Amino acid sequence: MIDKSEIRILIATGIITMLFIFSILYAKNSKNIDLPECLPYNKTYEEPKIVKLDSNIYQVYVVAQMWQFQPAQIYIPVGSTVDFYLTSKDVVHGFDIYEKNVNMMAVYGGINKTTVKFDEPGVYKITCHEYCGVGHQNMQAEIIVNYPSSK
Ligand code: CUA
Asked: Which residue's CA lies nearest to atom 1 of ligand 1?
C-alpha cells in the first residue's frame, strides 16, 4: 500500500520530468538550437579525415587523443556547413569551438555529431575543455575559414 504523500511525490516527479523533456524539445524546435546527436559506434569514425561533399558542404571526422586533435588544421571556404563527427581514442576530451557555441565531449567508444555553419572568415580555435592529463592545456586545433582562391 503506497502512502498518499508518496503518490503526490511520484506525480510531482512525473510532471517535472515532462516539463524537462518539453523544454528540450521546445529549445530544439522553436528556438532552433542544435543538440549534439549521439550516433551508433563504428570503427570508421576512428580515422581522422575531411570529406568534401559539395563546394561548401563538409564532413570532418575528428579524433581526440592525448593530447591532440586530428585533423589539427581544417581548411574550409567561407559559407561552409560542416558536420563534425567526434570520438576519442583514450580518455574523455572536450571539444569547444570558439565563437561557435559548440560544446561537445569526445568519448571513447562513442560518436557525437554536430553541424556548424561558418559564414565569417577567420581562424576558429578548437580547445579541449575537459581535463585529460598533463598535456591538457596544449590540446588544440583550428578551423581556417577563408575565401576560395581565384585560381
Ligand atoms: Cu583533452 Cu583536455
From this structure: 93
